[in-house]
Amino acid sequence: MANVSASPYQLIEDCEATHKTLYKFYAAVMIVIFILALPLNASVLHLFIFKLKFWNSNTNVFLFNLTLADVLVLFCLPVQAHSFIEGERRSSNDAICKAMLFMLFLHRGASIAFLTVISIDRYFNVVHLGQKRLLRVLKNSPQVSILIWLLLLPLTIPTMLKNFACCNSDKDTKDDALVKDVVDSLREAVIFTQIVIPFVILVYCTVHIVNRLRKKTVGDKTKLRRAVFAVTSCMVVFSLCFLPCTIARMVLLIVRAQLPDKELPQDRASVTFDGLMVLSYMDCLLDPLVYCFCSTTFKEHYFSSYFPFLLKGAKQLERSSIETVQPTRNTVD
């Protein structure tokens, strides 16, 4: 039960799940995602390491790191699902709660960062081929990937500080209000900056690559079409998985500021935010689509390794269509 004299943060950061049945549904969704995504990402990792040798291709290095980001969240899903089933929004154990938040937001930041880098790489390869300096930087994909991970670590630490997402919410802390406000503001700034800036970059890259495809009247358009599919797939994953939960977080903060003493609106906003966070974990299932659109080599190796019957069916269909067309040509001749 929330204290009457508690701060507005206490109302929305309460660890108890008020809608038990709904949170059990959230848990079921996470379990389904885990069951489907675990073998999918395991097969992708196996392919990158043993078949493609990802370190030999700049694009594959970025895609491999995106896969690592997805693996991070997979280990969190069973723990988070267990908390929901127990009627808690987060684990009651403070250390587990903060560790889960760190892993979840590190996954989110890494996924967004590598989706953005992949789009930037495609943009400069088809729109600004003359920018050799920038292209040379992107070619150093291992160094770029390491730099991204190193930058994400300090940016993710604010999610573990003070009272956030009900971690440490049951303890009566007497910290300086100014320090608390600074930490809260820093955390929210990081959360929204990680979304807004990459979203603008993704939109910019997508629009310019599509325009380049439209303006190209002669020559091979295959490379441009692949680039369009690649950045579009990144945009789709970003828009479905990360934008909704960010908007929900914004609504939650507005409700907290406008209605600090109203528990019902804050409770509804919190439940919606948690549900859309569950939706964000779907990127573990959608990212392989990005791999297929970004790398034809990955797509060919993946289907030939794990779904060879699909390729056999496609080849038989192609062969039959050729045989059907051939007699017609002979008759005409």
Describe the structure.
It is found in: Membrane. This is 12-(S)-hydroxy-5,8,10,14-eicosatetraenoic acid receptor. Keywords: G-protein coupled receptor, Membrane, Receptor, Transducer, Transmembrane, Transmembrane helix. One of its GO terms (cellular component) is membrane. This protein is mainly α and 333 residues long. The N and C termini lie far apart (87 Å). The model is unreliable at 1-12, 169-174 and 328-333 (pLDDT under 50). The longest helix has 39 residues, at 177-215. The protein has helices spanning 8-12, 20-52, 58-85, 94-126, 132-139, 141-156, 177-215, 222-241, 243-258, 263-280, 283-294, 296-306, 308-332. The chain has 13 helices and no strands. Helix 2 (20-52) packs across helix 12 (296-306). The protein has a single domain (19-315), classed as Up-down Bundle (Rhopdopsin 7-helix transmembrane proteins), CATH 1.20.1070.10.
Mean pLDDT: 80
Q: How many structural domains are formed by the residues?
A: 1
Order of helices and strands: HHHHHHHHHHHHH
Please tell me what the overall shape is: globular
- Termini distance? 87 Å
Proportion of beta-strand residues: under 5%
Count of individual beta strands: 0
CATH topology: Rhopdopsin 7-helix transmembrane proteins
| Helix content, binned percent | over 70%
Most strands sheet: none
The CATH superfamily is known as: Rhodopsin 7-helix transmembrane proteins
Structural class: mainly alpha
Helix segment tally: 13
Rg of Cα set: 24 Å
Uncertain segments: 1-12, 169-174, 328-333
What is the CATH class designation?
Answer: Mainly Alpha
Just name the CATH architecture.
Up-down Bundle
